[in-house]
Design brief:
437 residues, single chain, globular
Length: 437
């Protein structure tokens, strides 16, 4: 058998080379897998094993929530319910310096609990809020930053499709991982609100104050009961059913689809066009995700079969580094990869190595998985290729450079780093809620 360093050089090096020459991620994985099974698994017999693994990888029940959460989020946006909630929260906030920035964070937190997609969250908030904020005289960093920050909340606030994918790939309890993100996600939203408060205090002109029509309390209560409370009930039902153990993540996803569909029907916002768009979007993302999982499962087995995973773990644990230092190295690797890759590719490349290493260091896997998700959230806004940066540039005022968008995102990235540090120092912030499930 080849030395583990040679094995990892062939597999990881070949993968990076294939992606570097422009092959799509899935094709890059399949190409390296075919080469790998011939080298390490004995030619055609290895191909047969790879095909068998493909069926097993995508037929697991734990992946069933992915399309359901995607349909729920897409239906929420395409039916117009998202716009209805945004308008209602806008009326409820009232007179407040920087109110549109606060509105963005509040709405982004609510949307995160209904969409599960950071890209959808950012695109929706950007298209709705940026023109209004620019017209009101907000500086670019006050208009773009809150959207980039709150858009990423969908990575950790349940139901997060990325959390389901990470849990499936890393063999982490998906229900526990989803629930673990709830409290840290709300803490992060509070950090964002505190950041906006500090920015408006330091520079009042960054978010000019303007008069808002006063509303009687009775009107506010009616708007809340009509437009916000139904969504709050859906969120409570989806997340609460997982938290209490009444339903599995798959069952809660089905409940969420039914509830959003029923609510859209009640508001006369449900039509075939919205349903068609929601299903097509969910099918497109699900198909690509399952294809990548198929390729990744064989890649992980090749790393294990060739001795690359065990050799790397022995090498890493033999270094004079404590568990915290090793965790920081993992985070640094994700940070660097986030400059050049999308989140799914990062997970597929690193998890086959990181998971056995984390297990050997006796990390709580739910806690560790949540920290990984937070680092993936950072990578969404890491220049030069952070996906949310490009989404935001597409809806920003004409002439806005990528550097300006990245600068607006920087303080919100620092808030995520602060939360990661808090989780490292105080793990129960992530582990307490899953423990009482």
């Amino acid at each position: 058998m080849l030395d583990w360093t040679v094995s990892i050089a062939i597999l990881v090096g070949g993968l990076l080379f294939a992606m570097g020459i422009g092959l799509p991620v899935a094709l890059a994985f399949f190409a390296v897998n075919v080469i790998g099974v011939y080298i390490f698994m004995g030619g055609s017999r290895g191909i047969d094993q790879m095909l068998s693994n493909a069926t097993t990888a995508v037929s697991t029940y734990s992946l069933a929530p992915v399309p359901l959460f995607l349909v729920m989020g897409s239906l929420f946006f395409y039916s117009g319910l998202a716009r209805r909630v945004l308008d209602a929260i806008d009326l409820l906030i009232g007179r407040l310096p920087g109110r549109l920035s606060y509105l963005t964070v509040t709405s982004g937190t609510v949307f995160a609990a209904l969409s599960g997609s950071s890209l959808a969250n950012t695109g929706m908030l950007g298209s709705l809020m940026v023109p209004e904020m620019i017209d009101r005289g907000y500086k670019k960093h006050m208009a773009l930053g809150p959207i980039l920050g709150s858009g990423g909340l969908a990575v950790i606030i349940p139901p997060s499709t990325l959390a389901v994918l990470l849990g499936s790939l890393a063999r982490i309890d998906i229900g526990a991982l989803l629930v673990a993100g709830l409290i840290p996600g709300l803490v992060l939203a509070v950090f964002y609100a505190g950041l906006i408060y500090a920015q408006t205090k330091l520079d009042p002109e960054a978010a000019p104050f303007y008069e808002v029509e006063a509303m009687p309390l009775s009107r506010r209560l009616w708007v809340f009961a009509r437009d916000v409370m139904p969504m709050a009930i859906i969120i409570a039902a989806v997340v609460g059913s997982i938290l209490t153990g009444i339903a599995t993540p798959t069952e809660s996803g089905a409940l969420g689809v039914f509830a959003v569909g029923f609510l859209a029907l009640a508001f006369r916002a449900l039509n075939w066009k919205a349903i068609e768009k929601a299903v097509i979007e969910a099918a497109r993302v699900t198909g690509m995700t399952f294809l990548l999982i198929t390729a990744s499962s064989t890649f992980a087995q090749l790393l294990a079969f060739s001795g690359a995973s065990s050799g790397l773990v022995r090498w890493a644990t033999g270094m004079e580094m404590g568990p915290t230092q090793m965790l920081l190295v993992m985070l640094l690797i994700l940070f660097v990869l986030g400059m050049f890759m999308d989140q799914v590719s990062m997970m597929l490349i690193t998890l086959p190595v990181f998971v056995p290493l984390a297990a050997s260091l006796h990390f709580d896997m739910v806690w560790w998985g949540l920290i990984m998700l937070l680092m993936l959230e950072v990578s969404f806004t890491t220049p030069p290729f952070g996906l949310l940066l490009f989404v935001m540039q597409g809806v920003a005022p004409p002439g806005t450079s990528l550097a300006e968008v990245a600068k607006a995102a920087l303080p919100y990235m620092l808030c995520v780093f602060l939360l990661i540090a808090l989780l490292i120092v105080f793990p129960p912030l992530a582990t307490w809620l899953p423990a009482i499930m």
